Structures are given as C-alpha cells and as structure tokens.
C-alpha cells in the first residue's frame, strides 16, 4: 500500500482510542465483579425461601373467629375472607392510585382448604358484618354468643383469637383443653401466672397452638438468620430496635363506632376478669391504652421486635430487664406509657467471636419507643465484624475495626461505608402503602414478603403453616416455646416500668426472681405505675 | 474541504467533541455489556415527568429485557461510529434518540423531583447539552478529516498531491 503515516493516523486514529476505552470498561467491570464475588463467596450468604408446607388435603378445616375487630378482619383476609366493605374501599383506593394493589393481591392469594363456620364478637355490629359478608349458600356461618359455646360446639376444629390481651390466655386454654387448635395474637398472655398455665395446656393438648408473629415467614428474616449463623457479624454486643410512630392510629386512638352502646355491646363479657367499670366506649375500642385489657408498648409492639430478633438469634428470655419512660405524648387518660425504653440483658449470649476466646460474651437488646415522632430509626444488630440493618430489606456493612475483615479492609477491597451485602426481595416490585402505621409494619417486614418477585402476605403464610400443621402434623414456627419467651420478656418489661426497678429471670428455675412483698401479676394488672403500699404496711 | 485556518480550527474542535462523546457512549455501553447484572429497571421505574407512565410500562417484563439490550447496542453503536468516524451521522442520530429518552425520563422541569443529580438544573441539563452536541455532529461530519471515512472518498494524501 502507498498510504503515508499521515493517512494512517487520520484514517485509523480512532481505533486505538476505541481499544483503550473498551479495555478500560471491560477491565473495570471485571475487577469490580471479581472483588464482589470474592466477598460474597467468603460470606457465603444464601437468601432462602421459607420451607414449603404440605397442603391441606381432605375435608376443609372448620375455623371459628373470636374477635372480629381490626386485627380479626385482617386475619380473616389472610384466610381468604374479606368483607364487602373492605373490598369496596380497596377498589376505590386502586382507582385513585393504580399502584394500590391490596385488592388484587387478595384476589390472587391461594385459596386455603378451610371453612369459616363461626364468629364470636361481643359487638353486634361486628358479628353481623361477618355474617353478612361471609354467609353464602355453600358456607353457612353461625354467630356464637360466647367463646365457650363456640369451642364446645363440636363444630370448630380451630379458632383464631384476636381479642384484647386479657382474653388471650383464658380462650386459648379453653380451646386447647377441648383439643381445638389455636392461632392467638400477640402478646400471648396478659399475666405471668397464665403464661405458665397456657404452656401446660399447650403441652397437654393434641391440638396445634400458634402465636401470630407472622414475620417469621419472611425471606429477609430467614436470610438474616443465615447471615448471623455464618459469623458474618462477629460477636453482636448490642441490638437496637425501635418504635417510631406519630399518628392517632399508631397511638391506638382507633375510631369509635357510632352504633356502640350498652345494647349492642356485651360489656360484661368484654370485661371478663378486668376490673368492673361502667360501660365505656373509649375502653372498648381503644383498649390497648389500659393495662386492664392491654399492655401498651411492651405487649403490643416490643413483642414484635423481640420476636423478630428471637427468630433470628434464638436468644431466649433475657436474664434481666430494666425499663423507663412515661406518658409524655398522649396524655389522654391512658395508663400505659407512650414513650418507653427497655434494656434486656443477655450476659451469657454470643453470636460467635472472631477474636481471642473469652474476650467477647454477652449482649444487650435495647428497645426504644416513642408515639410522638415517626423518624424511621431502623433495627440494627451491632457486631464486632459488621453491622446489619434488619427489616424487609437487609444491609450488612463491615466494621472499620473488624478482625475478620481486617485484610480485606486493609487492601481496600472492603470499605466501612460500603455494604458488603444487600438483600431487597422487593427490588422489582413497586409498592403503594396507604397509612403511616402500615408503612411502619412494612418496614419491619411485618406485612408481606416476596417469593420469586411476587408479593405475599406474611400473615397468610403464617396461618397456612398453622393450618398445615393441624392437618399434617409437624412444628409451627412460633409455637408455645417461642410464645412463652415472648410473653415473659414482655411482662418483665411491663413490670420493670411499673416498679421502676430491674426484673430478673432465674434461668435454672425458669421463673422471675421474686421481689419480697411484690405480687407480679397484681402489679401487671394495676392501672399505671405501681405505687407500693409501703406506708400502710409500716403503719399496720 | 478545509480551506482556511478558521475552518480548520472549527473542524478540529468538532472532531475533538465527536471523540469525547463517542468515548462517553462507548464506555457506558461496554460497562453494561460486561456486567450481566446491569438493568435499566431502576432508571425507568423512577422516571418522572409527563411521560412517567410510558417509562414505567417499559420497566415491566417482558419489555424490560428488550429495552436493556436495545439500550446497550445503541450505546455501543454511537460509541463505535463516533470514535471510528464512520457512519457517524447515523450514530449521531441514534445518540440524539437515546439522549431524548434519557432527558424525557428524568426531565429537569420545574416541579419535577430530581433524582441522582449532582448539580442544579432548570430545564437545561447535561443530557440536553450532549443532545445538542450530537445535533452539531450530525450537521458537521468530521469522519473524512479524522476517521475511517477518510479512506472512503479517495482523500488519501497521495491523491491530493
């Protein structure tokens, strides 16, 4: 060829630039991917699906609903039964916001082989709503006036209990004694004494007992367990978990129904073992605000956070609990605190150590709650080697002073501010969440999980597991052992706040360490803080 | 073709612009080509502005995998044609198309929430500027000055002599 150097330069000058850019791009991406693969291989974390449960074959399981309030309705939807009113409301919501998929999700939900045979609610309006919505030609549903008549009718195989806390144990025990299976909402019990009685009943019964901590079914929590078990975090010395709410619904000021009156509400039955007070709508609809029926932050929300961690770490009952707080944001006649800090001590617990043997042991679980601020503080597990943020999403950051990742950090292959692992099962799914409270639950992984990119109601999975165990045998993921631990931990927190002192657990005796002159259950049931009748005793 | 010093300066400047824009497109394309996990999902799903529904639709399967492949091929095409200086007008057109889509997915319009931007923009942003630069490249091809097109028109140094 006769081309001059000038020809080649002008004609082919772009080629070396193209080669250089191509090489830089390919090499850069390759290096980043290799580094990441190296980290991931070292971590060896496997996001895993919840174990599939065997189907419910044969005759449908006959289910009765005790308590058809807000939560009772939600549980019925998870079982496949939605009221006309709810469907209409969701249809309108979807019209307004195309991403609002609650109705679509409900309709797509797998059908469970069950029959809803009975409903029991002391408020006529609610019981009638259930009858109106669920009564069909091929599925007759009956209203029972009392839970005992439902349980003893011989017409139910299983009951779902979504009542105020003070009814959880009496109803569960009655059902278990009659070999009727139970799905009870949290907290499992209202007093220390009945926690033991319920455990006895569950152990003696042929029926299946489950507590409603549905987050045990979500992918992120199962993955989190794998992360901790593989020593990714090193020794976890501190857990921070929080409740951050700032709205009426979140502070349990639910709507009071216009038709509520002594004629439509069986007030005596609502009260049960609670102190006899005259008919009070506020108490009926907003019972979570009084110790007589509920247990405030410690029973209502701490239990979720405690069990979320107990399902990941299996740390059991704390050896001691100290709590403080007060009624600072909603001074509206309630006697449960609305700001609460709880420190649970686990001095002999360890998630494993990457340092000298014996150097690390023990952990504090710190629960911090306010009903007067909604800044989204995440749940954080703080280990010597890494920090994990736990919710529906999972993120793990290496610690700058980690022993395990020391080499990687020194070589610059890891950086303290760059996550080494991130897991977001919802990455491909746009969500529309309606209220502040549901956002709160969604962030904690309490509303749904994602299986193969499809959103699934975690309560549905939890109830399906319970029903499958009823029919096929096996073990529920939140049974009496887990429920016992949850209830005792919550009662310790409530007692500590009320008494203003540390409550200790005797691991060997499996009981609360006694405090002279204090009857724990009397304290738990008392309104507000406990004021010890010391003066009277002295005078007497 | 290049007659005066002024013309020559203009041609050199546009050539430089062509190379830098080609470089930019090529690098974007190559990093996507070598990363099997890359997807435009996030960019499309977070789209803002009047055409949001269109981009949200593109972010759904099975459309998404085609969008991903087309985007990558288009980026490489623009990069290669502009760098090599051949079929550069076609390349510039593809570039204009791509940048229009990028701009429309995340327009810097008042009242539209800006995501992942490193500066402050009002209507005009860097995508729009690069788009206009591509219009310039379309109207002033420089491949015959520097690029493979140099060989096509028999403009070898020898024949000029």
Descriptive report:
- The complex is a heterodimer of chains A (540) and B (161).
- By secondary structure, chain A is of the alpha/beta class.
- Helices cover 38% and strands 17% of the residues of chain A.
- Chain A has 20 helices and 18 strands.
- In chain A, helix 3 crosses helix 17.
- Mean pLDDT of chain A is 91; it is low at 535-540.
- With 161 residues, chain B is an all-alpha fold.
- Chain B has eight helices and no strands.
- Classes of the chains: A alpha/beta (540), B mainly alpha (161).
- The interface between A and B is medium-sized, with 24 and 28 residues.
The major β-sheet of chain B equals: none
| Annotation field: number of helices of chain A | 20
CATH topology of the largest domain in chain A: Dihydrodipicolinate Reductase, domain 2
Please identify the top-level CATH class of the largest domain in chain A.
Answer: Alpha Beta
Measured as a percent range, the helix fraction of chain B is: 55-70%
Give me some keywords for this one.
heterodimer, A: 540 residues, alpha/beta, Rossmann fold, Dihydrodipicolinate Reductase, domain 2, 2 domains, ten-stranded mixed β-sheet, six-stranded parallel β-sheet, 20 helices, 18 strands, 38% helix, globular, disordered C terminus, B: 161 residues, mainly alpha, NAD(P)-bd_dom_sf (chain A), Gfo/Idh/MocA family oxidoreductase (chain A), Gfo/Idh/MocA-like_OxRdtase_C (chain A), Gfo/Idh/MocA_oxidrdct_glycsds (chain A)
Write the layout of secondary structure elements.
The complex is a heterodimer of chains A (540) and B (161).
Chain A: H1 5-12, H2 14-43, E1 61-66, H3 70-79, H4 84-96, H5 102-108, E2 114-120, H6 124-134, E3 142-143, H7 147-152, E4 158-161, H8 168-177, E5 181-184, H9 192-204, E6 209-211, H10 219-229, E7 236-244, H11 267-271, H12 281-285, H13 296-300, H14 302-313, E8 320-326, E9 339-346, E10 363-370, E11 379-383, E12 386-390, E13 394-398, H15 406-410, E14 421-423, H16 436-443, E15 448-451, E16 454-457, H17 458-472, H18 480-499, E17 503-506, E18 511-512, H19 520-525, H20 534-539
Helix pairs in contact in A: 3-17, 8-9, 9-18, 10-14, 14-18
Chain B: H1 5-33, H2 41-45, H3 52-58, H4 63-84, H5 88-105, H6 126-139, H7 149-152, H8 157-160
């Amino acid at each position: 060829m006769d081309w001059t150097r000038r020809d080649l330069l002008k004609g082919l000058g772009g080629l070396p630039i193209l080669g250089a850019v191509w090489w830089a791009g390919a090499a850069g991406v390759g290096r980043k991917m290799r580094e990441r693969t190296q980290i991931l291989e070292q971590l060896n974390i496997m996001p895993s699906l919840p174990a599939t449960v065997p189907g419910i074959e044969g005759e449908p399981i006959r289910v009765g609903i005790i308590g058809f309030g807000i939560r009772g309705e939600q549980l019925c939807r998870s079982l496949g039964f939605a009221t006309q009113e709810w469907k209409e409301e969701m249809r309108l919501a979807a019209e307004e916001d195309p991403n609002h998929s609650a109705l679509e999700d409900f309709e797509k939900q797998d059908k469970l082989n069950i029959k809803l045979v009975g409903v029991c609610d002391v408020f006529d309006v609610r019981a009638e709503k259930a009858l109106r919505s669920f009564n069909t030609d091929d599925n007759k549903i009956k209203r029972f006036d009392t839970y005992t008549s439902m349980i003893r009718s011989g017409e139910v195989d299983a009951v779902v209990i979504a009542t105020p806390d003070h009814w959880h144990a009496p109803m569960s025990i009655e059902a278990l004694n009659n070999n009727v299976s139970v799905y009870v909402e949290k907290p499992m019990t209202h007093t220390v004494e009945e926690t033991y009685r319920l455990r006895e009943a569950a152990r003696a019964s042929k029926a299946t007992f489950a507590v409603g901590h549905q987050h045990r079914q979500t992918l992120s929590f199962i993955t989190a367990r794998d992360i901790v078990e593989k020593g990714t975090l090193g020794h976890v010395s501190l857990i921070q978990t929080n409740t951050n709410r700032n709205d009426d619904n979140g502070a349990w000021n639910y709507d009071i129904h216009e038709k509520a009156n002594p004629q439509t509400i069986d007030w005596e039955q609502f009260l049960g073992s609670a102190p006899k007070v005259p008919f009070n709508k506020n108490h009926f609809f907003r019972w979570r605000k009084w110790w007589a029926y509920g247990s405030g932050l410690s029973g209502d929300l701490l239990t979720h956070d405690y069990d979320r961690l107990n399902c990941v770490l299996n740390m059991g009952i704390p050896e001691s609990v100290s709590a403080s707080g007060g009624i600072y944001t909603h001074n509206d006649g309630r006697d449960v605190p609305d700001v609460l800090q709880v420190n649970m001590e686990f001095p002999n617990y360890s998630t494993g150590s990457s340092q000298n043997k014996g150097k690390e042991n023990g952990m504090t679980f710190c629960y911090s709650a306010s009903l007067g601020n909604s800044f989204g503080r995440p749940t954080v597990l703080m280990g010597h080697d890494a920090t994990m943020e736990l919710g529906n999403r999972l993120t793990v950051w290496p610690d700058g002073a980690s022993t395990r990742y020391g080499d990687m950090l020194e070589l610059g292959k890891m950086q303290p501010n760059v996550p080494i692992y991130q897991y977001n099962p919802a990455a491909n799914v746009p969500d529309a969440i309606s209220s502040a409270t549901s956002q709160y639950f969604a962030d904690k992984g309490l509303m749904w999980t994602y299986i193969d990119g499809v959103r699934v109601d975690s309560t549905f999975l939890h109830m399906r597991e319970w029903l499958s165990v009823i029919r096929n045998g096996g073990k529920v993921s939140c049974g009496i052992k887990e429920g016992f631990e949850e209830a005792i931990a919550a009662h310790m927190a409530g007692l500590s706040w009320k008494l203003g002192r540390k409550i200790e657990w005797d691991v060997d005796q499996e009981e609360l360490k006694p405090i002279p002159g204090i009857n724990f259950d009397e304290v738990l049931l008392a309104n507000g803080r406990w004021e010890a009748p010391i003066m009277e005793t002295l005078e007497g | 073709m290049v007659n005066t010093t002024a013309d020559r300066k203009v041609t050199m400047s546009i050539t430089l612009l062509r190379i830098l824009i080609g470089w930019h497109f090529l690098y974007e394309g190559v990093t996507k080509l070598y990363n099997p996990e890359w997807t435009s999902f996030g960019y499309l799903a977070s789209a803002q502005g009047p055409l949001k529904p269109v981009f949200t639709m593109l972010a759904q399967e099975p459309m998404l995998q085609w969008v991903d492949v087309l985007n990558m091929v288009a980026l490489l095409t623009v990069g290669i044609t502009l760098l090599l200086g051949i079929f550069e007008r076609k390349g510039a057109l593809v570039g204009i198309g791509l940048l229009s889509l990028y701009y429309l997915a995340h327009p810097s319009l008042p009242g539209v929430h800006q995501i992942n931007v490193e500066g402050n923009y009002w209507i005009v942003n860097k995508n729009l500027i690069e788009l206009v630069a591509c219009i310039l490249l379309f109207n002033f091809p420089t491949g015959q000055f520097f690029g493979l097109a140099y060989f096509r028109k028999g403009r070898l140094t020898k024949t000029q002599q």
